[in-house]
Amino acid sequence: MGDVDARDRDVEGRARSARPRDGLGRPLPYGAQGVPRQPEGVVRTPQETVAEAQTLLDAGKPFHAHEVFEDAWKSGPGRERTLWRGLAQLAVGLTHAARGNATGGARLLRRGADAVEEWAADSGERRPYGIDLGSVAGWARELAGRVERGAGPVDAEAEAPRLTA
Length: 165
Description:
Helix content is 56%, strand content 0%. It is mainly α. Helix 4 packs antiparallel against helix 5 (102-123). The longest helix is centred in the last third of the chain and has 22 residues, at 102-123.
């Protein structure tokens, strides 16, 4: 099993993601001081999810906010999966934009905006759990446009959206 450990995999061969990461989720060399990772598989209330994700976004850690949204997407009720998946895509889009990946950032920001708008239209809810979906989608589309026009890597902390009013 020496090869399993050397490849950062568990005994079943799944990635362990034990490598340290920076605030934007980029892998750092082993032994480097990284940013603490979000624990995976945490079941939170929707309000806890929004509050935790906003704290991470405000700290310039959209990659970590995406993991919080992903937990809600995977553990929440089926009717809310599109909402949480869309919010996770927005956070990953901001992550890519902050890393300097204009194409991927803009694509994910728009995909996330489409998803939250689709969910709002289907559900009839524009402000689930206090999230202003119209404003969040507008923020994502505006940032996607700036990134495509060559804004370069954006400051994730300065560009963080306000999820609630």
